[in-house]
Amino acid sequence: MTVPARAWGAAVHAEVTVSDGGEITAVAHIPAGHPAFPGHFPGLPVFPAVGLIDLVHDCARRARPDLVRVGRIERCRLRGVVAPGDDVSVKLTMTRTGDGVRCAAKLRTSRGPAADIRLMCHEPPGAGS
Amino acid sequence: MGPADIIRIVPHRHPMLLIDRVETLCPGELVVATKAVTVSEPCYAGIADGATAADFAYPQSLLVESWATAAEMLMLCRRPAPHVDGGHLMVAGAIDDVAFHIPVHPGDVLRHEVRVVKLVADTAILAGDTRCDGELVAAFGHFVAALRPTESLRAAPTG
Question: Which domain holds residue B46?
């Protein structure tokens, strides 16, 4: 199996747990040396919001590797800054709908809420049938 | 406007400076910007022999970041923030209702259009799309951004 292009490769390491009930929890460490930081921004490294969207998608793919692409970002509310060295905790629920799989996540750092993100991922034809 | 003009307005730098040119900039109304996707970008560093065409799809997160940087040109053109010590930056509050249509690949040129839907003081609701050769790549329904003091982006220490 080949590896698709990723925004920052495997720069963020996440420990992901999938419970029997289907809830996914993860803790992702944002390294101080993350490759986005030199450009976002010089003198004030802030983890890009789109990196949090990637993180939610990555967590969803641990449970469903076939959810290769996001079909829609339904909602992404940014609540707080994610900085170098932060650990980001993710609580993710995945629900099948007529349109695909809805991935709803709450992300936090030790300072408080970081983001609420809801993605709709399309299922490949024939998935789960 | 090329990169030399763009970095006089936004604080993004390599590898997060994800627009190449600004074709149209109407302050308070509209920006049109382009970005060429190339296979030498850092996102393709992990591609190995045997990769499929789908593996070369440009990451959706970077597509959103690229469109948002065009939005930032619109937000900051009257009050540039080329450095973080300039006193203010653009902060995104919501990225809602983004629909992805077709994937893009190295060799494609993205054309971002960002329109102001509503502007109240330093906060704007923006919308628009990204196209490639006229085909819809992504539609951005509701993007909320505001100009905020730089200090608001500094993470408070947690002890």
Answer: 3-153
What backbone torsions phi and psi does residue A31 show, to the nearest 5 degrees?
A: -70, 150
Does B85 fall in a domain?
yes
How crowded is the C-beta side of B77, counted as CA atoms within 13 Å? Answer: 17
Tens of pLDDT along B103-150?
999 999 999 999 999 999 999 999 999 999 999 999 999 999 999 999
Single pTM value for the model: 0.94
> Based on the structure, what is the number of domains in chain B?
1
Whether A75 and B50 lie within 8 Å, measured CB to CB:
no
* Interface contact flag, A38 B14, Cβ < 8 Å: yes
CA of B3 vs chain A CAs: smallest distance (Å): 14
Tens-place pLDDT, residues A22-65: 789 999 999 999 999 999 999 999 999 999 999 999 999 888 88
Tell me the CB-side half-sphere exposure of residue B34, using CA atoms within 13 A.
13
What is the enclosing helix (H) or strand (E) of A37?
Answer: none
Has residue B64 been placed in a domain?
yes
CATH of the domain at B64: 3.10.129.10
- Full set of structural domains in chain A with CATH: 13-121 (3.10.129.10)
Which of B51, B61, B83 lies closest to A53 in CB terms? B61
B36-57 per-position pLDDT tens digit: 999 999 999 888 899 999 999 9
B159 falls within a domain: no
CB A43 within 8 A of CB A71: no
pLDDT confidence bin for B158, thresholds 50/70/90: very low
**Any B CB within 8 A of A116 CB:** no
Strands (E), chain B: 21-26, 30-36, 88-100, 109-120, 123-132, 135-149
Give the mean pLDDT of chain A: 89
CB contact under 8 A, A3 and B14: no
